[in-house]
Prior knowledge:
With 329 residues, this protein is an alpha/beta fold. It has helices at 23-27, 34-41, 55-70, 94-102, 118-131, 155-158, 207-211, 221-243, 260-270, 281-284, 291-301; strands at 7-15, 19-22, 45-48, 79-83, 108-112, 138-145, 163-172, 178-186, 194-195, 218-219, 252-255, 310-317, 321-328. It has two domains: 7-175, Thiolase/Chalcone synthase (Peroxisomal Thiolase, Chain A, domain 1, 3-Layer(aba) Sandwich), CATH 3.40.47; 180-328, Thiolase/Chalcone synthase (Peroxisomal Thiolase, Chain A, domain 1, 3-Layer(aba) Sandwich), CATH 3.40.47.
Amino acid sequence: MASKPHSMILGTGAAIPGRVLTNHDLEKMVDTSDAWIRERTGIEERRLIEEGRFTSDLCTDAARMALSDAGLQAVDLDMIIVATISGDVGFPATACYVQKNIGAINAAAFDVSAACSGFLYGLSIADAFIGSAACRHVLVIGGETLSRMTDYSDRNTCVLFGDGAGAVVMTPSNGRAGLLGTMIGSDGRYADLLYMPGFGTKNPPSLESVKAGYQFIKMEGREVFKQAVTAMGEAATRILHQAGLSSDQVDLLIPHQANLRIIEATAKKLSIPMERVFINLAKYGNTSAASIPIALDEARRMGRLNQGQVAVMVAFGGGLTWASAAVRF
Length: 329
Ligand code: UT7
């Protein structure tokens, strides 16, 4: 059986931008079809951030909602972790802008770069800091504006991604409720299967790098798909084992929302029926680090996660990285 939980989720929030990009809009931009996108991915539309707004703005909106849900003030926070691969600037961390926006003057703030697994990496870090009593209240946010890194002439990637942010406030466990376990993993041998080559120090901005399209996400979709099915299945199986849970004890599986076929394969591996799997991919596409906290917030607000119920979250992304967590509400 799992040991006593260190930390629990006290509040959740999400921010979804208003601009909608449908499959039919994409049909006018690249050689694709609504039927292909639905069949191969399960996506129908995605949301894009408005001009003049940035990742930190979405993160700030999600953070305010999570704080209000938790009944806490920004000054109560000891730490802010933002999981993102689309931060506002090269540095400082997007978490620092969120700190400024909400006035969390007592918090340490930093970003985590683990692509789509980033939110669960953040959750795992928060759990460790709360477990060691170094922190009491930690804000963990997954926020992305992938539309700003997407090549809208590349049909292999532009149909997949969307923008958004989700946040949770973590606090010491009250006993029964809380994180029953987390696991994180990565395999850098596959780093170049899904990456953005430009704007680091290897390929700094230049006319050449822009002409080469280094500012856009590159992905070997088919290979990533294969790795994702294996890694998601294994990460989810391991967390059940670690937390001492059987499949029937999982009230809701919240997988990273990248592709319906990957989600179905993960649920099958765990023998969890699709009625107990949370899916909002059709509306938002793949929002990378934001996908799980957005789904978690929606699930709670829809009444699909009530007191005493157990959720298992599992993610996979560039790096390659993977992560999972089990939580009792
Ligand atoms: O967030 C975590 C990381 N990301 C992922 O988990 C994504 C993982 N990968 C995938 O979800 C899938 O591989 C994709 C959805 C990206 C692609 O689906 P697929 O079934 O693996 O297709 P494919 O790449 O094998 O391509 C099949 C065909 C190709 O045409 P040919 O070579 O067979 O003639 C592609 O050129 O489909 C073509 N194709 C498209 N056709 C219409 C690729 N993209 C499109 C498109 N519209 N948007």
